[in-house]
Design goal:
alpha+beta; 7 strands; 184 residues; flat; single chain
């Protein structure tokens, strides 16, 4: 299969070959792909990245990927800059529809013209172009969203941290300089 040049980890799935019966696909990143992901995610190292998906048809012309992505990464501690290892294990569920599909449109209220979104409901389908959906990019995106933005070693705490008080945060009065001006 042809790899996507823009993504460090790519596994294209031909939409035409997907049946109504789910097919299990397991993918994992090799050393070159892990190095590219480490640069993309700004982490020290990606030790492992793998995903297992059930790939199935959704509605008439859509595709559903459902499964798990796991990764082992090394980041720099925000306090000491020492390496911190992290394990990622995230569920994945993504639906894709072809470009121009009516299923990709979000519901709109006829009275106000506002989009109706349910924050607890399923995500809206993503749109794909051509005849492939990239399962590798989906796995990399879900793993990236699970990365801790402030990794810290377990035995490290912020020391000598001083919180400001309300007095420190208050703006000085512009007339405070005039207070001692007329004293004799």
């Amino acid at each position: 299969m042809k790899k996507d040049d823009d993504a460090p980890f790519s596994y294209p799935v031909k939409v035409g070959h997907i049946s109504a019966n789910p097919v299990e696909v397991t993918i994992s990143a090799d050393a070159e792909e892990r190095a590219g992901l480490a640069r993309l995610w700004s982490v020290l190292e990606v030790k492992a990245l793998s995903a297992t998906f059930q790939v199935m048809r959704w509605k008439r012309d859509g595709v559903r990927l459902k499964g798990r992505v796991t990764a082992d990464i090394v980041q720099a501690c925000v306090v000491t800059l020492d390496p911190v290892e992290s394990h990622i294990d995230e569920p994945v569920e993504a639906v894709f529809v072809p470009e121009g599909s009516k299923l990709a449109r979000l519901p709109v209220s006829s009275e106000t013209g506002e989009m109706l979104l349910d924050p607890d409901g399923p995500d809206a389908p993503e749109v794909f172009t051509g005849d492939t959906v990239d399962a590798g990019v989906v796995a990399a995106e879900h793993a990236a969203l699970a990365i801790d933005p402030y990794p810290r070693r377990a035995d490290v705490a912020f020391g000598d941290h001083i919180e400001s008080t309300d007095k420190d945060d208050r703006k000085p009065s512009p007339f405070a300089v005039l207070k001692d001006w007329k004293k004799d």
